[in-house]
Amino acid sequence: MRILLVEDDAALADGIARALRAENFAVDVARDGIDGQHLGETELFDAAVLDLGLPSLDGIAVLRAWRAADRRLPVLVLTARDGWSDKVQGFKAGADDYLVKPFRIEELALRLRALVRRAAGHAGERLACGPVTFDAGTGQVERDGLPLRLTGLEWRILSCLMLRKGAVVSRSDLAERVYEGDAEVDSNSLEVVIARLRKKIAPAEIQAVRGRGYVLAEAGS
Ligand code: CA
After folding, report:
1. Domains of the chain (ranges plus CATH)?
2. Are 33 and 52 in contact (CB under 8 A)?
3. How many whole angstroms from 179 Cα to the centroid of ligand 1?
C-alpha cells in the first residue's frame, strides 16, 4: 500500500510519514498543491491523505483536478477543527473520508487500510489464501492462526496480492504500489523479496505468470 501525503506543514508531514511507514505503508510526500496534483496524476497510489490548506493550490482544487483527470484513488481529507464547510466541500469535490486535526495516527492508518480494502471491492476485513489470513482492518497477517513476521516490503507485496487474489498483478503495478517514488529499484530486487515471501506463506503460492506479472493462489490451483 503506497500512500500519497500532501501536507505543507513539514513537521506534521514528517511525523505522519514516519508513523505510516512504521505501519508498513510506503509514503510519498508532496509539500504543496501543485506538486501533489502532479504526483497524484502521474504515479500510482493506493490512497491519498490530502490537507486542504496548501500553498500554490488548495486541497479542494487538487482533489477536483484529480477527479477531473479520472483519478479514482481513495482520498482522505485532513480538516481543521470545526471545519464543517471544509468537510462538505471535500465530499462535494470527491473525498472518500476525512479526519479532523489533531488525530491519532492509528486512526489514520485504520481508515487508510479500510479505504484501500473497499476500493479493491472487499466488503469484509478478513481475507484468506489457504492458511494465510490478512486482516485489512488491523493489517495483521497470520499463518495457521499465528502472527507472521514480515518486513514492510514483504507486507506491501502480500497485501497488494491478497487484495487482488486470483488476479494477475503486473510487475510494474506491483512495483509502483510497494516502493516509494525515490526508491532505487533494480529488476532483481522484487524477485528476491518475492522468493523470500514465498517461503513464509507456503503452501499459499505467489505464481509468476510469464510476461504478465504475479498472482496469489492457493496451493495446487
Ligand atoms: Ca496546511
Report:
1. 2-119 (3.40.50.2300), 126-217 (1.10.10.10)
2. no
3. 26
